[in-house]
Amino acid sequence: xxxxxxxxxxxxxxxxxxxxxxxxxxxxxxxxxxxxxxxxxxxxxxxxxxxxxxxxxxxxxxxxxxxxxxxxxxxxxxxxxxxxxxxxxxxxxxxxxxxxxxxxxxxxxxxxxxxxxxxxxxxxxxxxxxxxxxxxxxxxxxxxxxxxxxxxxxxxxxxxxxxxxxxxxxxxxxxxxxxxxxxxxxxxxxxxxxxxxxxxxxxxxxxxxxxxxxxxxxxxxxxxxxxxxxxxxxxxxxxxxxxxxxxxxxxxxxxxxxxxxxxxxxxxxxxxxxxxxxxxxxxxxxxxxxxxxxxxxxxxxxxxxxxxxxxxxxxxxxxxxxxxxxxxxxxxxxxxxxxxxxxxxxxxxxxxxxx
Length: 355
Description:
- By secondary structure, this protein is α/β, with parallel strands linked by helices.
- The protein is built from 12 helices and 11 strands.
- The longest helix has 14 residues, at 336-349.
């Protein structure tokens, strides 16, 4: 372990789970290059399980609705963090909250670097008129760039997936996995934060109903309405299992390590699976892989997108929160058959994990 005299890099990102999950491959490559460098990572409490694999990382959780609410709360958070032995700050979020913290740290003569989100290029990609349809830099590389500017170049070519977690025979995760009866396991995460990123549930039900005939299907989700829908599918189909209700996020990550494929929207579970080295079939709605949020190390062939010849305004937004007039049914142009065939093709190319 490093000694207290060694200074830490303070890193923060407060946003959605998927954005935070995309940091994990960067941190793995970072620690491979700088094994003795300590990082203090500040984020919301739900993200804590993502960082369990790192020995040299201290996780600090923040609640902006309670203890650190408003400007006074940010000043209080700064005072807490200032007591840590920090040499530099990597702001991987670049929003008003982090700008306030950055300003305070700069007054304390700390080196601060923030992510360049490339907002001008984003606007060119999502605008309707004179759209410039070309890929933006993947977010993982933008994270790397922040560390480079702090004097810590990180090369994702050096990334290595960790060993799969050992699951005791009596663990709840292993009990679920043992039900697979030598069938391949397909994870399905049918939900996303916005309607513009969520494949219609009646069509997704067709996908699930077909795939569960010869495979085990594990369902992942989070919100109250999502859990209700998952419960319905769990009861309706013999080989469909509700993973969300029974398992914590840490346990879900353990399970994801042992599935054969994840079918996901442009959402967090795709990134969680990609971090485990699991093939991810991503279904894109109003967003697009060009926005820079493709799951890590996944083939472009593992993406299914709406036909832009029919819907040329796609991507309509970076986060899928805009569904333009006339695009309400755009997602329905992706047939369940296309998803099923692509999933089966990926599974054929994948060496089965189960004996």
